[in-house]
UniProtKB/TrEMBL annotation:
Keyword Heme: yes
Family in the record: Belongs to the globin family.
GO MF term list: heme binding; metal ion binding; oxygen binding; oxygen carrier activity
Cross-referenced Pfam families: Globin
Annotated ranges, domain Globin: 20-175, 246-402
Protein name: Bacterial hemoglobin
Region Disordered, residue ranges: 196-219
Keywords in alphabetical order: Heme, Iron, Metal-binding, Oxygen transport, Transport
Organism: Seminavis robusta
Amino acid sequence: MSSLSPTTYVPPQSPYQKVSCDDIDFSVACTVMESWDLVTAIPNWERVTGEIFLRRLFETSPQLQQIWGFGTGPITESIAKSDKFIHKGATLLSAVDKAVAFLGPNLQPLEEELFALGRRHIHMGAEPEFWPLVGDALFHTLRMGLGKGQYTEFVESSWKIIYDFMSYWMIEGLLAEKKDRWQAAQVVQAAQRRRSSNYEAPPAMQDISRRSSCSSYSTTSSSVYSEQELEDGGDVNIYERVPAEAIDYRTVQLVLDSWDAVTSVPNWQSVAGTIVLRELFELAPEIKTAWGFPVDFDPDNLEDHANHNRFLNKGLGFMNGVNKAVQFMGPDLEPLEMELQDLGRIHYLHMAALPQYWPPMGVALLHTLEEVLGQQKMTREVERAWRTVYSFMAYWMIEGLLAEKRGE
């Protein structure tokens, strides 16, 4: 288990050692893939093997049964046939299926996939000590699914190598996520201490509701939420959800076309990134310090090499984030919603972001678009389209941030 203090982070210990790629030779990989093909050939394999898997897991680990919301009693037939139970078993074995599909001469893509999957397991309340329990259930499922004739000693030893490899990288991802959250908590706590002791909202933030009415869907401190709630970064989304019908074909096309014009500018990321951060830091100096820049940082001071380079990289990252979101736009906005929520989570973990940062970021983005496009291309219709889309983006990013803050 982890040991946390205001200044020290002691990570949990992994029960697995790093598996050498030399241990995963051709025969091991082929044996695992061929035996898994036999498992997936079972009619309705996800449901059948998923039930075997979960029954075994909950039998050996009542703790996981309770954590995953299946109570503390025996798994009855009605529970085993429930959609929730079937879905959980299918989800876990689908992850194994995906990992097996990545097996090949180059294991780096699988390492990266497992690391990312391990990070996401924090939302399931996962701990390193769960992996041996899951491994026992998986091997039991393989024995039952393959039968004695096909579940040989070599099959078992091959699967052990692969499972140890998978577990190591997933736990590495989980531990990295735990450390990131601890570090983010320290930043947030420090920011809260600064605000409680000497924080005073600057005039730019006090006036932000006037300048940042990014659409009729945005909510400011003058309406629903108090100034104190916004200042403290309370657990509220300061934007209302933008109805899907508000983002029609015309709105999407205007945003895409104008963004194409922005990205056609030579060195557009550096140009736009510099403009957006200049405006943002002028509007909200506390964002500048929250992002690690000195209070007196001057973007024009080229002699301050370290901070100047960080400034350029931060601006580039800002514009790349917008670029990625725009690329997700289309008839189906659900993938974009999911991407934005993930981005909001990252903003909370790595930048200690607060909901009140989004209005000044919206103002800075619109200012940048006008500067880069010029008034001829940045028409009122284009501006309205961007205001609508930005409110959509801000809402879903803040939803992700708040979910991460609540530990969901």
